[in-house]
Amino acid sequence: xRRNLYAMLGIDEARVCIxxxxxxxxxxxxxxxxxxxxxxxxxxxxxTPDSYLFVAPADCHPITVYDPEKNxxxxxxxGWRSTGLRVTEKAIQYMIATLHSNxxxxxVGVGPAVKMASYGFEIDMCTQLREDDWQPYLYRLxxxxxxxxxxxxxxxxxxxxxxxVPSYQVYVSD
Length: 174
Fold this sequence. Notes:
Layout: H1 2-9, E1 16-20, E2 27-30, E3 37-40, E4 43-46, E5 52-54, E6 61-67, E7 72-78, H2 80-84, H3 87-97, E8 107-110, E9 120-122, E10 138-141, E11 144-150, H4 152-162, E12 170-172
Parallel strand pairs: 1-3, 1-5, 2-4, 8-12
Antiparallel strand pairs: 4-7, 6-7, 6-8, 9-11, 10-11
């Protein structure tokens, strides 16, 4: 299916770097030698001309960050682990500190993912979510008191805003 998508979009497969999600906060800066292969990371960043980044996010948010002034792009796999590890924030901070992006120039696209009402965990399984940072994004639904539901979208939007990206340059897809 991926090859069909590339063909439909006129993308040369040899110019694509595929993210192999490993469940860590690894950020990988894509170089020419990474194209045509997969890389273990939760985020790919590139300024390599004519390159493409790909992730199969399953039920997680794919988040793209683009700086048209510096011609730099990032692709983040925003699942609950990488969200808790603040990978979206780390990617934007890397773009600002290392690649000299200005937050006012960044455009962020958040792709669709599982909704909070459907993203519940049994309370006993949520040890990772007991950290203070998660508390504003944890909910109990009236009909499911034994479950904790998490707002991954809200937590990532807060990370994006905390980096200084204007809210009107953040686009969220349903």
